[in-house]
């Protein structure tokens, strides 16, 4: 069974959703038969590459709220994250274009390291306040999971995975995703948003039952 998850590495709900999926999988009896595939989705692809800005005032402007209102909203999200064992510092965050990070994740996938790198990027950005928007920031993450630095720099320089990132985004749109996280099980069941773990578990159980229907043999003669 395959679970595809569209997400961005600077989406606070995506890290929360990742933890909730992990909780659901821990309770799923067939978890060893589940493949989790992380797909690319940019929250704001309009931000010019190489440009960064403070997250708090930018979000306040986008939603027509005061910075204090946005700070309060961030605090609520931080509390939800804490319930999943995550320590956020959202008001201190910096935002930028995440295209290179997604390209790096596709490179990592070819080496069987995408899941490990995804976790590191989310942890680094949200819990350590590390940038994830340029080559120099991304290389240490890549090296930490065992990728070759020279290969990483070459792949990000020639943009060899740009088409793959755009294909992920196009697929998400075709499947009806309007935001992230977006969970899709066997391209049949979808769940939008950082759904509670028990709901994600129900989706897993239903997908498994559909893929493995019970076959009843004739009753034995007495």
From TrEMBL:
One of its GO terms (molecular function) is oxidoreductase activity. CDD domains: DsbA_FrnE. This is Dithiol-disulfide isomerase. Residues 2-204 form the DSBA-like thioredoxin domain. Pfam families: DSBA. Keywords: Isomerase.
